[in-house]
Amino acid sequence: MPVFRWGRSILFTPLSRLFDLGRLLRFAAVGLLNTALGYTVILAGLSLGHGDVLSNAIGYAAGLVLGFVLNSRWTFSDAKRLDAGTVLRYLLGFAVSYGANLLIVLTALSWGVTANPLVHLVGIVVYSVLFYLASAHFVFRPAETMDRTEHLN
Prior knowledge:
It is a single chain. The protein is mainly α. It has one domain (20-148). The chain is 76% helix and 0% strand. The chain is built from 7 helices and no strands. The protein has helices at 6-11, 15-18, 21-47, 52-75, 84-110, 117-139, 143-148. The radius of gyration is 16 Å and the shape is elongated. It starts with 5 loop residues before the first helix and ends in a 5-residue tail after the last helix.
């Protein structure tokens, strides 16, 4: 079974290649739509009394499908193909990025900070940077990169 070596490649990639400007701008545009949708759902959940964790989870879930469709078709349209492996990598990248976001929210809760919209904004920034890196270098790698390296199917 092929082994994906994402860790080494990203560690030794120049910063200018980690953050391709065109892709970064498209990812940011999709991110603005995702953020608007997700944050609106989070605030609605908080106002309905669903609590921080459930509101946060529902907000992120609401943007997950939108983000996949827009990023796969526009932001990273040069990716080789969309298949079950792409969906799996997307979900894994999301899980890691969302886990970092949730860690921020849970840390704030442990400090006694509850229902604070600013905590969620900090989480969104961390989530966005991590998810861009995962999307660009793990989920939707360009076709020529996928042809040269082993990847997760």
